[in-house]
Write a structure and sequence with these properties.
It contains 12 helices and 8 strands. By secondary structure, the chain is α/β, with parallel strands linked by helices. Helix 1 links the parallel strand 1 and strand 2.
Amino acid sequence: MRTPVIAGNWKLFKTIAEATAMVNELKPLVAGTVGVEIVVAPVFTALSRVAEAMAGSNIRLAAQDCYWEEEGAFTGEVAPKLLVDAGCSHVIIGHSERRQYFGETDETVNKKAKAAIAAGLSAIVCVGETLDERESGKTFAVIEAQLKGSVADFSANMLAQAIIAYEPVWAIGTGKTASEAQAQEVHAFIRSLVAKLFGQASAEAIRILYGGSVKPDNIKGLMSQPDIDGALVGGASLKADSFAAIINFQSN
């Protein structure tokens, strides 16, 4: 059985005070949740304080990005070992907004993922197609190219420290959600691709998250699909009650 992962990507929202308040509000709402890996990803400046606020809870901490070098003359970058030092167990890599606005490529995603895994972090590696790519029938070709590039030269052991997040770009922040069938189709394709690249055991073990306007009212349907192992949640993760409702999808 693959343990579901519900991860909240807070993007460029929340001051340190707001982020710590959010975690303190969330903790009692999910304290009794079992069988779900709960992750929140605040901005860099809030990481260590949020780590302190969640100490002793069942919530884990992720960063939204990292760099592939350990140290050096790389102004503005943050190394994986610094994320570990701040209390992180996970890091999101290659989010579509990073690809779209900041020039992330499959090559840089690959370098970052390798560095993150080497530092002991779980790498949440994101892939996803644009609306134009979907409408022109290129979804599977795009996903295959992104995934192959992002996990190039991975060993099976490295892949075991990774989580894949499928985020159709056309569904992020738009209110549009891939239908359960659309999401399942791509998740099944990703799992079959992992089987070809790394073998059936790796494919059965890898967790594949769906991201793209996930809300309390659609999480249960998405999670009912055989190849959807969780969610990377954006806007709905910014409020404790809505995020807790998503986390507690099994009991709602």
